[in-house]
Amino acid sequence: MADATFHVYEDAAGQFRWRLVHRNGNIIADSGEGYASKQKAEQGLQSVKENAPDAEVVAEPPPER
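Structure (tokenized):
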């Protein structure tokens, strides 16, 4: 069994979103945007699964004040 699962849901505005939930209930990641259809939300999460399995972490400088 995987340590995390993707969840696709409809938000209060009628948009579809996804989130990656660890088995302990913590949300690890989310779509950050709503999609017009469930199919588009599923395509978005599939893109993450395919394009970032070994993504590097890049430290960015803090924003200028």
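The longest helix spans residues 38-51. The chain has a mean pLDDT of 94.
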